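ASSEMBLY PREDICTION REQUEST
Request ID: AP-0331
Submitted by: J.K., bench scientist
Number of chains: two
Total residues: 723
Priority: normal
Notes: Please return the full assembly, not individual chains.
Input sequences:
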Amino acid sequence: MRKHGSHWSQGDREGYQRSNYYEGPHTSHSSRGGRTREEVVTPPLPEHAATGSQMATSLDFKTYVDQACRAAEEFVNIYYETMDKRRRALTRLYLDQATLIWNGNVVSGLDALNNFFDTLPSSEFQVNMLDCQPVHEQATQSQTTVLIVTSGTVKFDGNKQHFFNQNFLLTAQSTPNNTVWKIASDCFRFQDWSSS
Amino acid sequence: MSLPSGHNMGHTDQVVQRRARCWDIYQRRFSSRSEPVNPGMHSSSHQQQDGDAAMHGAHMDSPVRYTPYAISPYNRKGSFRKQDQTHVNMEREQKPPERRMEGNMPDGTLGSWFKITVPFGIKYNEKWLLNLIQNECSVPFVPVEFHYENMHASFFVENASIACALKNVSGKIWDENNEKISIFVNPAGIPHFVQRELKSEKVEQIKLAVNQPCDVSQEALDIQRLPFYPDMMNHDTTMASNPRKCMAASLHVHEENIPTVMSAGEMDKWKGIEPGEKCADRSPVCTTLSDNSSNINSILELFPKLLCLDGQQSPRATLCGTEAHKRLPTCKGGFFGSEMLKNLVLQFLQQYYLIYDSGDRQGLLSAYHDEACFSMSIPFNPEDSAPSSLCKYFKDSRNIKITKDPYLRGELLKHTKRDIVDSLSALPKTQHDLSSFLVDMWCQTEWMLCFSVNGMFKEVEGQSQGSVLAFTRTFIATPGSSSSCLHNNQCDYVRAPHVLARPKMYFPVTEPGDLAGAKKPKPNSQG
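STATUS: Completed
Returned structure:
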């Protein structure tokens, strides 16, 4: 009886073209030709070492740390602004198979995510804290991943303000010209969830 | 996590018993919350907690609802069979109006009425619509004086909690054209139909109730009986001490409606009001507010903003498209992908914090991968006024929103297990309250487990001894090799998690002794 509340079919998403927006540290337009506002893009990744090797030198590690920071800053700006002002576009930032745990509620896959964000009241986020770490390739099978942690306050329409913590795993999809980051996993919790 | 064989942790019987007790607490705490699901996090588990306030937006199955009706929701206009006669109609015919008026009031006083409106409901057959609503509504309701006015369908219900439940149905039902049906709820005066049945003593009761707004016992809207609204409860300290204010506020729907005292003389105004009367002309039964407390806003959220539904408003999609029906999903306890993983993670945490709290954190070396990372943050700037108990953590706090210097950013991220453990060892001695832990397992692949722990701990030494702090810590762990084993011999069939570790700590703060806003540990916990 319930319909799938998806406003953004796969076709819509891929065909969607809007003017560029970033002030972030990115270079030229991607080879795909135009990209949406709701994408997190950084310069291309450094060449990976062979699969299975560890991040051997501290220099490499530093590079990963810097890159993680860059992705994190870019991401957080876009994510929360999209969440607050362009909610319908938010799922563009997620992988198709991404999962969200929202105060203990599991939301899995883009359709469910679309539906979820559609039913969530409008929001006003204020991020006060941001930290990030590169994730070791042993954990990700060389899929470049960044752990992002944020905290701050949020006011959902019709509800009191809450402190929140949120974690993301962001994975990189590389092209020769840039790197596009998308959310693989997302965990959100009010700090005072038990009184909610 | 393997421990060096010579490691003497100073176990006593007491410690062992404490561990066992902690484990019991875990079992009790978590066993009711998680159910086995497929690893890979495609949830088909039913994580319902008590009650019906489950999140409908997720792809989880809806709870089974009480559905007294046999009629298909798509059965429209006039095609009803006799045996499908609705519960609704039977109710209306059987219950005398006087008894219905008494509603749920045990002492027989007047209930409070609410008008339920379905915009553009004129399209829908009455029985079909009511069935549809009842199927989705968590409580049975008795619609009174169902009618169409202009383009809309309306009826009345006599109970605030029912009104709230109906409000929740808004946006969760669809018609045959797959269009969402919205439901608006407003307080209303006593419906005309009911009016006619009033006996004189009931009129007197109404007058009494209205003229004595201070008398909470006669007031119909019983806050205690309303469904649990987080927004309301946040202000419950002030509300509990002044129920009159919140009673009055709850009837004051729209800020532009000037509340008026309904005197006995105005009762006559209600007589003869036709169903087609403009909504805006109806004065809700309400009392004057002597002062508009800010708590009103939290009550107002119970009711959507009043829309003008008279015929002069051209029907537009905007009437249906408001946020009135949106609610936050219920907050639930920690999520685990499966029972097995839950056990794994909890065991790991138990052991981790046992060492962490033991006074010697060098034992954690075996928990960390060679290339692990660690960082921590506190959500205060050094310039802000922050509790002094947090000041010692500022120097290690990594917040890249504030720290822009790449060198400093690099320094604050600890790399390699040696550096990490040294860094942890420099932090104050702690006692973590395992019973306060809430764990979300939020990413799980073949190679990695990612989980976040929310909990409380106490500093047990130093200047801030006794401070209670809340923390959130995220771990990324990889399965250990088969040669590593957990202390408690579960290495036979489960590979111990080897903490590759991106642990991150931050300390949303509580004042020592003040746990407001943070989860309280269970009273029997001894950590």
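REVIEWER COMMENTS: The beta strands of chain A are 40-42, 94-102, 105-108, 123-135, 145-156, 161-174, 179-190.
SIGN-OFF: pending second reviewer
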